[in-house]
Amino acid sequence: DVTTYTYKISHIRLATVPNFDPSITGGGCDPYFHIRLLQKTGESSWKERKVFNYKKAVGGKVKKCLPHDKFVDIDCRHLNCIVKGDVKLCFFDHDQYSKDDKMFHLWFHTAFIERNFLVFDKVVVDKACKDKHCRTFDAQFKVEVYLHRVDDREFTGTTLEDEGDTRSDTDEET
User: Fold this and answer.
1) CB contact at 8 A, 27 and 77
2) Does the structure show a pLDDT above 90 at 47?
3) Which of 14, 18, 49, 97 could be stapled to 159 by a disulfide with Cβ–Cβ 3.0 to 4.6 Å?
4) Which run of H or of E encompasses 89?
5) Inter-residue contact 140 to 16 (CB < 8 Å)
């Protein structure tokens, strides 16, 4: 049995900018993310539950990032990005005129965090690792997640589904 701690995500950095937008608009992406937690629903069953939507938290104002920017910095210090247990970060590219694109996702478990940051190289990031010819993700692409431990009482376990947000990550539009 392992001890599971509660953390608050304060910052996320994408090293290099994924290329999801058309070249006519300069390429790059308009990134945002969801946090999903794997929660037990029965004696031997589990379900992913969405607990945070960055785009919703910032009122739909997602920053456009161009390839020459080199980094995408997402400040979460003033947001309620509390995680505990099995955590899935799902990243999307906001599209103004069509359905948003799912860019990539990654998993981690809070019991195994040893420092206040996690680094995920392209080869371990789901979807990005399949881009062998670097058309969408640069060879040096990586995701850095900065977090700090918080009191377990800050983790409420409330999901967005509990608040009426029942869209799946593949249904994302606005």
Assistant:
1) no
2) yes
3) 49
4) strand 86-93
5) yes
Q: What angle do CA 86, 142, 87 make, to 5 degrees?
A: 10
Q: How far apart are the two ends of the chain, measured CA to CA in Å?
A: 40
The residue type of 156 is T
Gyration radius of the chain over CA positions: 16
User: Could you report the per-residue pLDDT of 67-100, keeping only the tens digit for each?
Assistant: 999 999 999 999 999 999 999 999 999 998 889 9
C-alpha–C-alpha distance, residues 18 and 29, integer Å: 6
Main-chain dihedrals φ then ψ at residue 42, nearest 5 degrees: -165, -170
Structure tokens belonging to residue 109: 């478990």
Global pTM value: 0.89
Token pair of 116 as six digits: 């206040």
| Residues making up the chain, counted from first to last | 174
Average pLDDT over residues 101-111: 97
Q: State the number of CA atoms in the 13 A half-sphere of 30 facing the CB.
A: 19
Quick check: 56 and 174 in contact, CB under 8 A?
A: no
Other C-beta atoms lying within 10 Å of the C-beta of residue 115:
8
